[in-house]
């Protein structure tokens, strides 16, 4: 399970989905310095991993400039996307991502 929001609610929902020896990967960290996680919904063995790169302050410093480049057409976000998947095909999307068959970014469309 991958969370790109850093939301306590999303992580707690994921706890009910994770299987034995599964992993929840959170790209991005919560806004607060704490998080309350309900372990009771999870299977026996699991990993909860938080990763933030670049650091929040580095990302924030570059944000306005990147948005300006997008507005000026210097960056086309579609250049960074190789695959689109419908939500019904999310298992296929996951398998392709795990097998390195998604060359850039894969987008799941709801």
From TrEMBL:
This is Uncharacterized protein. It comes from the Bacteria.
């Amino acid at each position: 399970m991958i969370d790109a929001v850093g939301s306590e609610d999303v992580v707690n929902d994921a706890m009910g989905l994770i299987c034995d020896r599964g992993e929840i990967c959170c790209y991005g960290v919560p806004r607060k310095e704490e998080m309350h996680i309900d372990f009771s919904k999870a299977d026996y063995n699991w990993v909860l991993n938080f990763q933030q790169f670049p650091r929040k302050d580095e990302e924030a410093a570059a944000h306005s400039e990147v948005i300006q480049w997008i507005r000026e057409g210097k960056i086309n976000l579609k250049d960074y996307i190789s695959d689109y998947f419908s939500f019904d095909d999310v298992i296929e999307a996951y398998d392709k991502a795990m097998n390195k068959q998604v060359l850039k970014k894969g987008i799941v469309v709801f």
